Amino acid sequence: MRPVLHGDVSSAARALLFVPQFDRERLCIRMIAEAELADAHVLKTGRLHPIYGNGSLMAVARNRSLANEPGFDDLRYCQCFETVLRHLVRFQINQ
Fold first, then answer.
1. In the 8-state DSSP scheme, what is residue 21?
2. Is-contact 85 9, C-beta < 8 A?
3. Mean pLDDT across the chain, nearest whole number?
4. Is a pLDDT exceeding 90 seen at residue 15?
5. What is the pLDDT of residues 45-87, one digit of tens each?
6. How many Cβ atoms are within 10 Å of 34's Cβ, its own excluded?
């Protein structure tokens, strides 16, 4: 996966916010896997992955419907943001 920036986490959290709470963990894991797959494709071929894009978390998140971005006073958004960060930490630990 490409280096993760604030916009990547924000976009992924907005994708999670758009789906029911019980689907969020699974979707987050899937988006990270898709970004990793796309990045490997780009490195191998020099071309964007036809579905997942450039290997960034933002690209795979933006393939989905996104909730409007609320502020951090929105508890549900904070929980989604935390979910993304938690799974990114797990991903990094497992590398």
1. G
2. yes
3. 96
4. yes
5. 999 999 999 999 999 999 999 999 999 999 999 999 999 999 9
6. 21
**Contacts within 8 Å (CB) and 24+ apart, 22-28:** 24/80, 24/83, 25/83, 25/87, 28/83, 28/84, 28/87
What are the distances in angstroms from CA 29 to CA 20, 26, 44, 48, 76?
15, 5, 23, 21, 18
Phi, psi at residue 53, to the nearest 5°?
85, -140
The overall longest dimension of the chain from CA atoms, in Å, is 43
> pTM of the prediction?
0.95
